[in-house]
Amino acid sequence: MADTVLSFDDLKRALRDAAGDSEEIDLDGDVYDVEFTALGYDSLALLETAAVISREYRITLSDDVVGSVRTPHEFLDAINEAAVNEAAVNDGVR
Amino acid sequence: MSTAVVTGIGVAAPNGLGTGHYWAATLGAHSGIRPVSRFDASGYPARLAGEVPGFVAQEHLPSRLLPQTDHLTRLTLYAARAALDDAGINPGDLAEYEMGVVTASSAGGFEFGQRELQNLWSKGSRYVSAYQSFAWFYAVNTGQISIRHGMRGPSGVLVSDQAGGLDAVAQARRQIRRGSGLIVSGAVDGSICPWGWVAQLASGRLSDSDDPRRAYLPFDADARGHVPGEGGAILIVEDAEVASRRRARVYGELAGYAATFDPRPDTGREPGLRRAIELALADAGARPAEVDVVFADAAAVPELDRQEAAAITAVFGPSGVPVTAPKTMTGRLYSGAAPLDLAAALLCMRDGLIPPTTNVTPDPGYRLDLVTGEPRPAQVRTALVLARGEGGFNSAVVLRHAI
Predict the structure, then answer these.
(1) What ipTM is given for this predicted complex?
(2) How many angstroms separate the CA atoms of B255 and B286, rounded?
(3) In this complex, which of B64, B67, B126 lies closest to A23 when CB atoms are compared?
(4) For chain A, which domains are there?
């Protein structure tokens, strides 16, 4: 399942697709630990980004998890944790 | 009681994007009515529309706003910025609770809503945009203006079909009287998409003509309904003293307003429009003889044209005042129509030219002095703008020239 786990670049692309570019700060700069509020992404922007990730990578995040992440770092960790959990569940089913 | 004045105008109209282009086209009798291009309307009973030309959203809006906005919200944000620039206002310089936003809407962001409903039906719920939660909504234009320009004072949205455009500006005046310094008002409306189209067709008031010059003919013996359009105007409404302190250019004063409701159709009682006109004139302290021009609602449905002509002649006498309907060049813009007429009336005062009603041969039975063909030079100090909404809404606004 390692090939479905997201990189930071994948997350940035999903953010741009879902909610447009950050007006405040260049996403290609050092923003890994910058809070989304400072980047100008609100809770709906993150929900929409999670929907893009769900469609493209089949990784589903609960709304609670999406609502709790504060930085790209935390978001990516949550996505990858969910990916590992889903892989484990799928392996268990198989 | 404080006086509310208009200090900024932003226009997105089918015959011109931007106030300058719109006004030049309107005085030149250039129409924006054409076959629908935004979707394939060939199989529908109505196939003409007034679409705003040359609008590229990416040129006017930050990338962040594109995924979350319907076409009409993008036009609204364009017009709001243009109006603020025209007024010489930088919202960042003002206190955020001093500024409010009151717009009108008739349907909300139908095109966005249609796309997301199609996603829901054809692909499933995970394909529906999270932004659908507000992008379709009546109040979205007010909200997006408020967020973009940091305006947290009294705000709202009025929904009363075509009359809403005047009702919103009247609400802006109320908020100025209650102490706000500046209200962004007016409306940009439209839903030129299949879902919006069928909703409008249900009114039975759409023209089925394919000839842009013969499709929308208010007060003409050949009137056969209207052509829908998109667009409107955003106006900056300010307290006259605040505007004067900052030496703002003032287009005119929102001097009078009234709204009435029609009686039930089968009662035989007189429709409410005449009363709306009289109450708005009384509110402005103006006599009918002082009114230099009337911007008509111009439904182009024979019964509604008769009602409007009867109300105008009852107040002003037969052919007693110049009447015009420049919306013959844009189609009816729903809640956006009356704010665009307010803009036209203010520009008409500035330039001394009454814009024409195009393509119409007035039916003499209406006994209206309709300005047709080309602009009519006139000193206009007081103007009356009328708007009627489907379902019985009548609104009237009296504008007075800035002294």
Answers:
(1) 0.85
(2) 9
(3) B64
(4) 2-93 (1.10.1200.10)
Closest-CA distance, A14 to chain B, in angstroms, reads: 12
* Residue A41 Cα, gap to closest chain B Cα (Å): 9
CB B170 within 8 A of CB B397: yes
Whether B373 and B29 have beta carbons less than 8 Å apart is answered as yes
Helix (H) or strand (E) segment spanning residue B386: strand B382-389
Strand-pair category, B231-239 with B4-13: antiparallel
Q: Which helix (H) or strand (E) holds B340?
A: helix B337-351
CA separation, residue B340 to residues B13, B90, B204, B285, B300 (Å)? 8, 23, 24, 24, 18
In this structure, what are the phi and psi dihedrals at residue B293, rounded to the nearest 5 degrees? -160, 145
Domains of chain B: 4-245 (3.40.47.10), 256-401 (3.40.47.10)
Please write the tens of the pLDDT for every residue from B33-82.
999 999 999 999 999 999 999 999 999 999 999 999 999 999 999 999 99
Query: Which residues of A fall within a CB distance of 8 Å from B66?
Result: 20
Which residue of chain B has the CA closest to A60?
B126
What would the DSSP string read from start to end of A27-93? Answer: TTSS-TTS-HHHHT--HHHHHHHHHHHHHHH-----HHHHHH--SHHHHHHHHHHHHHHHHHHHHHH
Residue B103 tokens read as: 């717009």
Contact B67 A20 (CB under 8 A): yes
CB contact under 8 A, B62 and A20: yes
Note whether B277 and B315 are within 8 A (CB): yes
